[in-house]
Amino acid sequence: MPTTGERTRSKRWILRWKGHARKWLLQIKRSNLQWRTAQERGTRKSFIHKGSFHEAVAPVLAVAQCFCLMPVLGIGGSSVRSLHFTRKSWRFWYSCLYLCSTTLDLMFSIRKVSHGGLDVRSVEPIVFHVSILIASWHFLHLANLWPGLMRHWAAVEKRLPRYGSYMERSHPVRRIRLVAFLLLSLSLMEHLLSIIAVVYYDFCPRRRDPVESYLRGTSLHLFEVFAYSNWLGWLGKLQNVLLTFGWSYMDIFLMIIGMGLSEMLARLNRSLKRHVRHPMPEEYWTWSRTLYRSIVELIREVDDAISGIMLISFGSNLYFICLQLLKSINTMPSSAHAVYFYFSLCFLLSRSSMVLLLVSTINDRAREPLQLLRLIPSEAYHQPEVTRFAAELASDQVALTGAKFFNVTRRLFLAMAGTVATYELVLIQFHEDKKSWTCSVETFD
Amino acid sequence: MKFLPKLERRLCRLKKKMSRSPLMRKLDLIHESARKKAFQDSCDAYKTQIEMEYVVRNQPTKPSRSNKEVFLSDGSFHQAVGRVLLIAEFFAMMPVKGVTGKHPSKLSFSWRNIRTCFCVAFIASSLVNFSLSLFKVLNNPISFNSIKPLIFRSSVLLVLLVSLNLARHWPQLMMYWHSVEQDLPQYKSQAGRVKMGHTISMVMLVGMMLSLAEHILSMVSAINYASYCNRTADPIQNYFIRTNDEIFFVTSYSTPLAIWGKFQNVYATFIWNYMDMFVMIVSIGLASKFRQLNDDLRNFKGMNMAPSYWSERRIQYRNICILCERMDNAISLITMVSFSNNLYFICVQLLRSLNTMPSVAHAVYFYFSLIFLIGRTLAVSLYSASVHDESRLTLRYLRCVPKESWCPEVKRFTEEVISDEVALTGLKFFHLTRKLVLSVAGTIVTYELVLIQFHEDNDLWDCDQSYYS
After folding, report:
1. Which residues are bridge partners to A401 per DSSP?
2. What is the pLDDT of residue B29?
3. A194: pLDDT strictly greater than 80
4. Any CB–CB contact under 8 A between A318 and chain B?
5. Do B399 and A392 lie within an 8 Å CB cutoff?
6. Best mutation target, A426, A427, A431, to test chain B (most B CBs within 10 A)
7. Which of A86-100, A125-139, B346-360, B378-392 has the lowest mean pLDDT?
8. Measured CA distances, B284 to B195, B327, B384 (Å)
9. What is the count of residue pairs from A and B with beta carbons less than 8 Å apart?
């Protein structure tokens, strides 16, 4: 006979398990319901764009999550309230794993580089790995800030003047998605071309297995330490793909943020443009000034969150442009190589200039209201609110920055071009035509 | 008739009393009683004090236990910087008395103080050392590389002189600093108050540890080198001949001279590191004062505040700006020396990184010192730029002032913040802002690219070569 104490203990145990089971059942039910609603035929309502940035950026973030960046939960939700970040999600651990494996990969490539001589060209893998490692660390940190940031963003968006028509509303969303997917497909194409170039021109005479020789070529730094094995080769390839994606994604993400912020300013400017020529009451000016101020506050907050990524992206673009331009002097061994090389050079140049131009649009749009305020008729101009707005506009420099070291404006474009030209001219003097496709000893044991 | 004048006086008083009104008389009485009472009280207080002293004196002397008050910091710069200056005094810089006192009024400078004498003596000895190395450099072919000891020693000498001059003004500066601090909005919590002192001591600790590690590594590599170059049988003598080659270029070897040279070397290395730390610490202090003001403004961001609040904040901001300018006038030469030194040494070290390293000890020392140098330069520039950043942050809060509380005082404050350039400077030639970091990096790369063209790999295993090259 069990004593009373034992009986109560077992009862309690059963009760606890019942509670767990009930919770579990509820969870299953909820997920079932979600699945069912997802399977429903979409009505017109589900296809109409709300015009919010959160909605526009969702697929881009989803793609990033496939490649271990930005582990935020609830990006697909209809409102920003569904966004949250937790350490207990598998996405977070997935990106942590990615960080660790990148660090390991970095160690191996440092080992490889330090065995050869140090040179502008030979540190390329180190620069590549380090910049991506720091950027992914920043993305992980950003994921933590993202829900709060998006909530702030949505609060500001709600105060903006409404869109006139459906077309106008869907335009920014479509634009953001177009740019993101165009660039993603271009970077995919670049990667495929690089594979083709290597496979097509595999001139090394003693090749055994085409797959093996390719995999060995992509992760040479690993097979200097370990003996060749197929699974390690595929792991190295996977890491390589993830890194290449992460490198392009930095720029894509910055472009999207730039477009989102400049769109907000553009909406305010459209409203101002409609009203400046007529004498408006003071309330209108108070409204527009506070709205402008809150957009600027949002820009500052976003800048605090992403300025590290900005610095990394601009720095690595500068380095890689210099490097690729230097390499363009080399003779190309085959037409596949030439196609790949020029494609990737053009892609790099256009991508970096696009980042700069799209991000500097924020600065341009933020300056525009000042020009519009000049059009106010004189009988309406002399109000304290208008003069205050004008004074604030004249003295503020609104732009995203690279870790506060430089402001991203259109002027930076020329400065960067000048820097590239200067370094290029100096580097050319030390340049020797180095054949990068010799069958080096380590390629075949 | 001795009692006559007394009687007369009493009579006089009585007459006066009688002539007054009854109300006055009453008041007089009250006054009198109050006076008596006060006198009694002060007598009692004095008695108790004497008794207390007696009791205290008769107590067996215990080691005084420090209470909580001793450890609580009031968040003043004077307290935070006390230990830093104490270390500097040990290394013959900043001979000010009373740096660890609670209140800045205890600070004093005098020429007859032992610290000042030590400092002056050390300046004289480094002058001798400087002229010795000048002699050696002039007797050899001059190049970008060979003037390195000269620049090192001359900058150390310059910093010593500037710091001696700074020590004379330090008490007034700290008093002014104290008066500005008293006026600022105070932190409610101890954590906010302690933060600056904590940062300062961490910076000092990490910097000192790293420079100590660097010095030890340099000794290891020099010993390694000396054992290779066996000039004499004695390894210690070998080592001293290598490290103090500017002394033994002139005279023959003697142990006291060698020890003097080593002492000079250690002190010079410390002072060379200390000037960067000092710029960092002063800028941390200034930036934290701006932050204290900004924290208060942030707490009231977007609220309707009275014009008096704004005028108070504006005056506080102005006071910090004046403080910043006074500090800048005092230390701008040190800043200039520190920045130009760092620029030169980074260029030299980067150029030397192209050489082949003769041994592992050399390679470890070399890369460690290069990374330390770059890290220190970056830290100095970022910390000193933070003064400018913090001073600009005020504008962000002023922009959010609501329409109702917008008044001429806020407008004036805003215009002042916009038009002022508040930052530490290098002898007013350049402002230390974050943009400077990029331009310095650009300058280094440009010079490096030019210098590389003239570079030849010189063999470091050449025993006739200078230790410093």
Report:
1. A407
2. 87
3. yes
4. no
5. yes
6. A426
7. B346-360
8. 11, 12, 7
9. 30
